[in-house]
Amino acid sequence: MTSKSAAAAARATVYGYPRQGQNRELKKAVEGYWKGRVDAGELRRTAAELRAAAWRRLAEAGVDEVPTGDFSYYDHVLDTSVMVGAIPARHRAAVEADALDGYFAMARGTQDVAPLEMTKWFDTNYHYLVPELGPDTVFTADSTRQVAEFAEAAALGLTARPVLVGPVTYLLLAKPAPGVTAGFDPLTLLDRLLPVYAEVLADLRAAGAEWVQLDEPALVQDRTPAELNATARAYRELGALTDRPRLLVASYFDRLGAALPVLAKAPVDGLALDFTGPAAANLDDLAAAGGLPGKRLVAGVVDGRNVWINDLTASLKTLATLLGLADRVDVAASCSLLHVPLDATAERDIDPRIARWLAFARQKTAELVTLARGLTKGTGAIAAELAANRADLASRAGSALTHDPAVRARTAAVTDADARRSLPYPDRAAAQRARLGLPLLPTTTIGSFPQTGELRAARAGLRAGRIDTATYERRIEAEIREVISFQEKTGIDVLVHGEPERNDMVQYFAEQLTGYLATRHGWVQSYGTRYVRPPILAGDISRPEPMTLRWTSFAQSLTDRPVKGMLTGPVTMLAWSFVRDDQPLGETARQVALALRDEVDDLATAGSAVIQVDEPALRETLPLRAAGHAAYLAWATEAFRLSTGGAAPDVQIHTHMCYAEFGDILRAIDDLDADVISLEAARSHMQVAGELATAGYPREVGPGVYDIHSPRVPDTAEAAALLRKGLEAIPAERLWVNPDCGLKTRGWPEVRESLEHLVTAAREVRDGLPTTS
Ligand code: GLN
Ligand code: ZN
């Protein structure tokens, strides 16, 4: 079977590929360079080799058009700042002295200058460096790197398409530079920025680029009419350039919504759209906008952010529909493959019956090629691939791992009452006060204590079989002893065991839950040279045995003071894993919540009077568009309450959140119904305490008074001043004293001193409180 438009050969293409190399060679080279072990020439050679290897791999797999410019030594948004000459004044000297060192100074700071701020790239776990702009910013074009990488690919005989962060997204991701009024809107710089993009485009054209891709993911967020007008203006101007390559404007992570007709009408040559998950709505929106007559459509039909094989038959159906809407349809992943690991075939430890459900960057590439072939030559040409795909999908759907009847029965039986504590907060508070007998302004910490080199070595030794379990456990016990005795000596009121047995908390719980898979090589870039290996939540979740009881009980046996049980909440367990795509997230969250509920129950039965369920990621997985917020927050808060709802009234449930900007989830924080919440607040001078108070938050709050993201030791006066600030918003009966977050990234000397200051500050402020009878 042939369809006429399909006959115009569809191409398979990607927007970006994992940068690190099979053995994270990039990380090693960059960190080696920082340490002076690798010189600049060697670093550049390694980078060029990694790029060439990735392009070759793509080309060999059958990708028709490879991306260039997606590679980065650190971050592609930082690269864009360099490309447009947006170097903050404080970094200029370093950049002038040496471009590469200056680049890393912007990324990481130096002794003398602070780095650019870092924040999350949309709702992924990748972090970018925030451009700093102001009314005085002067843009200048530097296309060197883009041109050089395009030339590298061309020299290998490959058809390449340079990928740039688009001008509108670049400005929307920027923030006012230090010293610039907060009201400054970087988008007002658009007219200054466009000529710089024009220059870069002309340079790429001169180098031989036929197409250039401009990524505009910021347009999938809710945008004001003014922002949409700016978008129209930007692409009217770039489209009108005479000396330019053909322009492909790409969006991903969600539907374009109101921005779709704006881009469809713009005088550009093609659009790349996401058709996966909620972004599938782009299909109807595109039809409603009249399609893309005369233009190229790059269809993101393979999810670029998850690790699961594609449903090829379903994708072909989408592609067939799209053929009627554009002049030419090509096949792509929904977004850059940067967000998935490199190669699933490297996972030798995963049961081969399960590994066949997995598609990392390499496997996704093969899917794209198959789809492009099917689209061009008809399904007959890919019959074998389709049959294998159907069998793999069927094996996943019918597997006992993805369908555990006991887990299913349990989630189905959940009632509203399960997600509610048995008594309202005031009654619980009374019961807890009676049981715990804590002073006003009680002190505590967020959970982890410093992860020393010795602890890491012990863990590595256990994994490698150099030490046995008993030796390892003695080592952990010794650490817990030290942590407990330090806290007692310092006079902290609610103790923690210090989490020495956890490297990464999500990984720690994932390893103990049935339904989760661990990978050996599944690295994804989080930021710069930091890579994480998220566990894969593959099946129905259950808890074969208690996960934390042993260490919490051991810690409690050492002291008369309460030791907080310490768990990671259901939303965070999902946010920092690869989650399944074959059921609603809310259902997956419920399964995890029920497993945690059993842990809460075991801890409480063993005598824990205080249990903390961390949800640092609650805010970060908030959907990109406001329309999705209510539904997300409903299942997210329900899952938290389900995990804690079974606790008796006199068990005090704590939760913890960090990464600021709580403003738009204050209602959800209240909905958690936790008895105590600790929050990051030191850097924002307790702002969140005021916000919670204004929102009428009725329960106990511990806004952090010690900024743990810095090695700085706050003195007593500083901590006391923050506490007094907190007291302006939250009454002493409901205010806790704690650091911003866990202490695992800090060193012991600074932690010791800081916590002593924190306790002294709490005593001082407590003693100054008006006495009540
Ligand atoms: N309990 C965890 C810790 O202290 C919390 C981590 C987090 O908030 N990111 O490390
Ligand atoms: Zn935290």
UniProtKB/TrEMBL annotation:
Cofactor, how bound (note): Binds 2 Zn(2+) ions per subunit. Binds 1 zinc ion per subunit.
Domain Cobalamin-independent methionine synthase MetE N-terminal, by residue range, is 13-323
Residues given in the record as Zn(2+) 2 binding sites: C658
Q: Residues that bind 5-methyltetrahydropteroyltri-L-glutamate, according to the entry?
A: R24, E25, L26, K27, K120, N125, W576, E620
The active site is formed by H709 (proton donor)
Q: Name one Pfam family in it.
A: Meth_synt_2
* Any GO MF annotation of the entry: zinc ion binding
In terms of superkingdom, the source organism counts as Bacteria
Give binding positions for L-homocysteine.
I446, G447, S448, E499, D614
Q: Domain Cobalamin-independent methionine synthase MetE C-terminal/archaeal spans what residues?
A: 441-763
Q: In which pathway does it act?
A: Amino-acid biosynthesis; L-methionine biosynthesis via de novo pathway; L-methionine from L-homocysteine (MetE route): step 1/1
Q: Which residues bind Zn(2+)?
A: H656, C658, E680, C741
Q: Which residues bind Zn(2+) 1?
A: H656, D671, E680, C741
Q: Which cofactor does it need?
A: Zn(2+)
Q: What is its EC number?
A: 2.1.1.14
Cross-referenced NCBIfam families: met_syn_B12ind, PRK05222.1
Q: What does this protein do?
A: Catalyzes the transfer of a methyl group from 5-methyltetrahydrofolate to homocysteine resulting in methionine formation.
What protein name is recorded for this chain? 5-methyltetrahydropteroyltriglutamate--homocysteine methyltransferase
